């Protein structure tokens, strides 16, 4: 029998307790032994809890961390402290640790994995990225023979839900966000999701694994979806694209990586374009396996519990030879200014002769050639102009836009969105 | 250092040797030790081989099976014998075995897993289903806390390529098959793929894992794509569907399973509809995780080598507690006559008053209600009639069709294809 201590009894903690109870038989059969929840750490004994937690609650972390009978500590509190300190102590006390904490893993992974290795125990974190979708273990084990060339994904359900609502129901951003909050897909303060920080933490974790180098969230260039408006969604549709918040990392040189979270216009037949609503997906490109994609529910009580319990079973099962941190390399994350992309720009300018020429001039001076220009929607004497560039470095675009914003006849640059090259392999849709 | 013996140096064997050499450094870094190919079993020493094989070739299986230095035997010969006997001997000699052999695993898994467990070694077979796509390990480990409700997939690249060609390029079956053969996606004798047997073996393997019960290929109901014609593809498109060869298994009762490989019309926004060309995908529905899908190249030299080498690394890495066969249950695979589905029927009948009434009568007598009837394409006095039923047991349909075939005015029943209920979750496309 395996004894576990659960730290935190929020949504995911409750899901884990319920899953261990409801699927007790199946789990015991597959593992070859029972999993017993011995203690559960909470902060408030008076709160109403799942009946399965009865008799196991404690307010004292040491009741778990210092109990010699407890083999696996399951950290589901979230947040940086005291979660990080508890994880450290558990590892020091030679207990396996299973966590869903993307903040702690993405920022302090190096230190904690070294500690786990020294103690000869497992530190497992499948639930920290992509909820229930198997990602970490497939990447670390199943794709272990590949050099990873690129990973890109939709890693945040809140923003994907909002963009889907805007796309399919033509709701504007605020309405879509309110709907997400109503359904529990967004927090009352949704900035972590909306601004892309949640996706950035997850990208830091999976790109560290993919490229065997330590990438922390501060190294990731982050843009959220706050500026996406219905007009952008519509123009994207007209041009054959769908806007997604894409987290991607890829090798751009022998020892250089690009890591970016930003809204991207994807061709309608891109594998990620088919991922809608709260679903997440990660597309991995390996030099042997080619393109592989994992898709499923990136968050939610039971999907996340599914990943946590699978890790508990692995911790119970793993023998002496574990997979430790494989961040043996030290690659450089390039400055985002050097990253190249195609860009969509939507701006408002006075509908006068010569305006387009001045705008194009700014692009030309910065070595940016234009793929397409559409002038639309003249309201009064103000026209909306939409442009798509060819592949250019981001810093060139930023310089061109600085010049354009200064032009007298330009009212504002309403939005700038990256445009992905078409990746039509493997997916039906608009035919190439 | 891990010493391995490779049995068979065909396409996949060559891919494995090349991958171990080309990604030698990455593999050693991640595994923590080197993988050395000590011996390679071939049948013909005179054949031209990859230079990496030099000095390692042998005609004698015992050079590998009886070599105490060899830790892992990699069986890549294919076919039932002598592969099965070699695997048995390797396991008896307490060597780990990695294989891509779906025939041996699907038919003789029970015996071989018991032997592996008795010897305390691993028998790994990720490459036997879905080429490089991580499927086996995610199902056995990452989804281990779930009761699986259903699995469905596109498991054969040859047939998916053919159907995609028919769909997108409007090639007829014979042309599409010739193109597949020209590109190396189909064998000169393609029956194993076309008739669905390859998909059936793979379904047997993954449904055994999903439902913890031994399912052998003979228990799977199999229909191939030989009867699919362009007309069916076109009607499907008109009705908002795409035809795929779907392998699926699901719980239909407490202790009963349905296991079927057959062409199915999927709604255009079904996650599997987006899987085109030679790509494969498996959609798994777990009671905690919900829907999860794995997508990638189901075959091919390097994708398959990717899976084989990952298994070699796992065999090297796995400690004492392995995941053995988890087929502890004994569920019953129901007779396909009891399986229910919607059905599309295309038939040719004389364009006369009363014919439709007789045809409908046959359906009515067998408790089949019709969802839709289209009469088209009258050539001379022969009309093509397309019908879609509501959800009915297969045996009722078979009885109705037997009666219909006997009707004087019915020329022939050109085709019958299952129609899947729409699963619009998670995928863009036609909106519900």
Automatic annotation (TrEMBL), chains A, B:
Domain ACT: 344-421
Reactions the enzyme catalyzes: L-homoserine + NADP(+) = L-aspartate 4-semialdehyde + NADPH + H(+)
A single GO BP: methionine biosynthetic process
EC number annotated for this UniProt entry: 1.1.1.3
Positions with a binding annotation for L-homoserine: 187
Binding annotation for NADP(+): 7-14
CDD domains cross-referenced by the UniProt entry: ACT_HSDH-Hom (cd04881)
Enzyme class: oxidoreductase
Active-site annotation: 202
Cofactor(s) it depends on: a metal cation
GO molecular function terms noted in the UniProt entry: homoserine dehydrogenase activity; metal ion binding; NADP binding
Positions contributing to NADPH binding: 102
Involved pathway(s): Amino-acid biosynthesis; L-threonine biosynthesis; L-threonine from L-aspartate: step 3/5; Amino-acid biosynthesis; L-methionine biosynthesis via de novo pathway; L-homoserine from L-aspartate: step 3/3
Keywords: Amino-acid biosynthesis, Metal-binding, Methionine biosynthesis, NAD, NADP, Oxidoreductase, Sodium, Threonine biosynthesis
Recorded family membership: Belongs to the homoserine dehydrogenase family.
Name the UniProt record assigns to this protein: Homoserine dehydrogenase
Species this protein is from: Fervidicola ferrireducens
């Amino acid at each position: 029998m395996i004894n576990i201590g659960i730290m935190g009894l929020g949504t995911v903690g409750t899901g884990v307790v319920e899953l261990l109870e409801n699927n007790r038989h199946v789990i015991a059969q597959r593992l070859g032994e029972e999993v017993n929840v011995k203690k559960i750490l909470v902060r408030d004994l008076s709160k109403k809890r799942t009946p399965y937690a009865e008799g196991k609650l404690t307010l004292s972390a040491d009741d778990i961390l210092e109990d010699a009978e407890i083999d696996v500590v399951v950290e589901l509190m979230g947040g940086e402290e005291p979660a990080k300190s508890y994880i450290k102590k558990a590892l020091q006390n030679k207990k396996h640790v299973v966590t869903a904490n993307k903040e702690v893993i993405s920022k302090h992974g190096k230190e904690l994995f070294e500690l786990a290795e020294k103690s000869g125990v497992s530190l497992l974190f499948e639930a920290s990225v992509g909820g229930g979708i198997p990602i970490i273990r497939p990447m670390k084990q199943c794709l272990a023979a590949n050099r990873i060339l690129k990973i890109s994904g939709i890693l945040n359900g809140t923003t994907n839900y909002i963009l889907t609502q805007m796309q399919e129901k033509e709701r504007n951003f605020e309405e879509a966000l309110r709907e997400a909050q109503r359904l529990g897909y967004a927090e009352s303060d949704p900035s972590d999701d909306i601004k892309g920080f949640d996706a950035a933490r997850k990208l830091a974790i999976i790109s560290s694994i993919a490229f065997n180098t330590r990438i922390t969230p501060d190294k990731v260039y982050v843009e959220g979806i706050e500026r996406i408006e219905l007009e952008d969604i519509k123009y994207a549709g007209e041009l054959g694209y769908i806007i997604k918040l894409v987290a991607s990392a890829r090798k751009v040189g022998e020892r250089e990586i690009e890591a970016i979270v930003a809204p991207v216009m994807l061709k309608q037949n891109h594998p990620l374009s088919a991922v809608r609503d709260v679903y997440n997906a990660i597309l991995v490109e390996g030099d042997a396996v080619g393109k592989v994609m994992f898709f499923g529910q990136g968050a939610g009580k039971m999907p996340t519990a599914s990943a946590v319990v699978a890790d508990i079973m692995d911790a119970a099962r793993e023998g002496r030879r574990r997979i430790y941190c494989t961040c043996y390399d030290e690659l450089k994350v390039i400055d985002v200014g050097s990253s190249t992309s195609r860009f969509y720009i939507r701006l408002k300018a006075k509908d006068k002769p010569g305006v387009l020429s001045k705008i194009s001039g700014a692009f030309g001076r910065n070595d940016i050639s234009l793929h397409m220009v559409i002038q639309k929607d003249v309201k009064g004497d103000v026209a909306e102009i939409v442009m798509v560039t060819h592949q250019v470095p981001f810093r060139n675009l930023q310089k061109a836009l600085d010049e354009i914003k200064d032009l007298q006849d330009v009212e504002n640059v309403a939005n700038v969105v990256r445009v992905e090259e078409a990746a039509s392999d493997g997916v039906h849709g608009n035919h190439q």
